[in-house]
Every structure is written in structure tokens, then in C-alpha cells.
Specification:
The chain has 164 residues and is an alpha/beta fold. 30% of the residues lie in helices and 28% in strands. The chain has 4 helices and 6 strands. It has a 6-stranded mixed β-sheet, with helices on both faces. β5, α3 (130-140) and β6 form a beta-alpha-beta unit. The two termini are 17 Å apart. The mean pLDDT is 88. The structure holds guanosine-5'-triphosphate. Residues 12, 14-20, 32, 34, 36-37, 61-62, 118-119, 121-122, 148-150 line the site of guanosine-5'-triphosphate.
Length: 164
């Protein structure tokens, strides 16, 4: 079977771990230094259920509620990984706001999303329960998972490519 190409935008509030998740996935390592992203594209070939995929991950700059949705991410993108940190209520609000803008700009009732609650290793600082995350994903008919870029991020992107 020929390889399928998938472009996935990784979006969320600043410092939730978008770059760390992307680097984890592509390079299999965790980078502890913090370098605010402008925009970075990663490509990786992967095989899921005997289908080859050429994944293009666009690691976007951190958004907030007031950001205008960057219109380049509404075109030509197959799916979205919306990332929040389980330690930040603000970041959870920001994914809601991004999702709303996404529906608005695409004019669709549903967009393919994987909602990712990151930084599960920081369980002492947890502000958002897994149930809250799951509830939100159900509302969106999205895939939900919690992860830690410090531990393992691969599954979020496998799910993403598989679900769209
Ligand atoms: N403990 C812990 N720290 C994490 C995790 N993921 C990311 N970090 C740390 O959080 C900080 C921000 O991570 P980034 O991956 O740069 O976050 P980002 O969302 O890409 O940030 P912007 O590009 O500024 O929007 C870094 O210091 C990371 O090392 C995680 O799962 N657990």
C-alpha cells in the first residue's frame, strides 16, 4: 500500500509541552531545556496497522484566548493535537477556546482532534482531573489521552494518524 500523508497541527497554550511531545515522538528523547517555539515542522514515517504514514507535525507557537486563530492551520491540515497541561487550568481553558475558533474558521461541526492532557508525571500539581478531560473530549467526539512527554508520547500521534 502506498504511504498516506497526514499533516497534523499541535496546538495549545504556552509551555504545555507541544515541542517536547513532538520531539519525543520524532526523536524518542525528552529535552529538558525550554525554548519557546515560533513554528517547527517535524516529519516522520511510521507504520500503523500495516499502513505506512508520512506524518508532518506542525509544532505551533503557544496560543492564548486572545490569539487570532492562525489561518494557515485551517487549510491542508488533517487533524489537530490540542495539548493542555494537567497542572494548568488556564491551559485547559485555552484548548476550549482554540477548539471553538477551529469550528468557527473551518465552518465545520466536527474536526478530528486528539485532546492530550500532558505532564502526568507532575501528579502532585494536578489541577485538571482525567474525568474533566475525558468529558471535554466526549463533547467534541475527540480521542482523549493523558501522557507525559517525560515518559512516552508516541501513542498520541499513533492515535491521531489512526483516527483520521
Ligand atoms: N515534568 C514535565 N515537564 C514537561 C513535560 N512536557 C514538557 N515539559 C517541560 O515544560 C516546558 C515547556 O515545554 P515545551 O515542550 O517547550 O512546551 P511548548 O508547549 O512547546 O511551549 P511553547 O513553544 O512556548 O508554546 C519545558 O521545560 C519542558 O521540559 C512533561 O510531560 N512533564
Amino acid at each position: 500500500m502506498p504511504s498516506k500523508q497526514r499533516k497534523i497541527a499541535v496546538m495549545g497554550y504556552r509551555s504545555v509541552g507541544k515541542s517536547s511531545l513532538s520531539i519525543q515522538f520524532v526523536e524518542g528523547q525528552f529535552v529538558d531545556s525550554y525554548d519557546p517555539t515560533i513554528e517547527n515542522t517535524f516529519t516522520k514515517s511510521t507504520r500503523i496497522n500495516s499502513q505506512d504514514y508520512e506524518l508532518k507535525l506542525v509544532d505551533t507557537a503557544g496560543q492564548d484566548e486572545y490569539s487570532i486563530f492562525p489561518s494557515q492551520y485551517s487549510i491542508d491540515v488533517h487533524g489537530y493535537v490540542l495539548v493542555y497541561s494537567i497542572t494548568s487550568t488556564k491551559s485547559f481553558d485555552v484548548v476550549k477556546s482554540i477548539h471553538e475558533k477551529l469550528l468557527d474558521i473551518t465552518g465545520k461541526g466536527h474536526v478530528p482532534v486528539v485532546l492530550v492532557g500532558n505532564k502526568t508525571d507532575l501528579h502532585m500539581e494536578r489541577m485538571i482531573s482525567a474525568e474533566e478531560g475525558k468529558r471535554l473530549a466526549d463533547e467534541w467526539k475527540a480521542i482523549f489521552l493523558e501522557t507525559s512527554a517525560k515518559q512516552n508520547a508516541v501513542s498520541s500521534f499513533h492515535n491521531m494518524a489512526n483516527g483520521i
